[in-house]
Write a structure and sequence with these properties.
Layout lengths: L1 E5 L5 H12 L7 H6 L10 E5 L2 E15 L4 E12 L8 H15 L6 E4 L2 H8 L9 E2 L9 E4 L8 E5 L2
Parallel strand pairs: 4-5, 6-8
Antiparallel strand pairs: 1-2, 2-3, 3-4, 3-8, 5-7
Length: 166
């Protein structure tokens, strides 16, 4: 039975290995890494999927900010990456991890300003993320606008640049 538990700092190295296995070592060149910057994930929103003593999935969330064209800063939470061991994919682990992170975001008072880069068909269907407010957002690197998604009343539909919170 797979347990979903808070992501403890002592699993950080295992998370990096899992991310490499799920996305490849070239993952660090993706635009999402630039958006997150060199900061730290929000520990209260990180979760692990554990099968026995094996880490088979993880999710992390990051503080980011949208700086609109007038210079106003809109703090947001970037959800992801969601990683599942290749031999465990398609079993609902990623969905359970995402549900845990979104519930924790709500509990922490952060549930109204969430964004991610992901598959719109999946994230809209199961979690209510859409591109309705992100059409004027810019990112510090290449991205597919249809995959830039957000949810929550605190998400601004303004033109601006998304980047690290610090």
């Amino acid at each position: 039975m797979i347990e979903i538990a808070p992501l403890a700092p002592e699993r950080d190295a295992a998370v990096e290995d899992l991310l490499d296995a799920a996305f490849g070592p070239e993952r660090r060149a993706r635009t999402a890494y630039t958006v997150r910057g060199g900061g730290s994930p929000l520990r209260a929103l990180g979760f692990a999927a554990i099968d026995g003593d094996r880490l088979v999935g993880s999710i992390q969330c990051w503080p980011v900010v949208l700086t609109d064209d007038a210079g106003r800063r809109w703090p947001l939470v970037m959800v992801g990456p969601v990683a599942v061991a290749p031999d465990m994919q398609q079993g609902g682990i990623g969905r359970r991890l995402t549900e845990a992170a979104l519930a924790a975001a709500t509990d922490e008072g952060l549930g109204e300003g969430l964004m991610l880069i992901g598959d719109p068909e999946y994230y809209e269907r199961f979690f209510g993320f859409t591109a309705a407010r992100t059409g004027q957002w810019r990112l510090p690197g290449p991205f597919e606008p249809r995959r830039l998604l957000a949810r929550g009343d605190a998400v601004p539909g303004v033109a601006g640049m998304l980047g690290p919170s610090a």
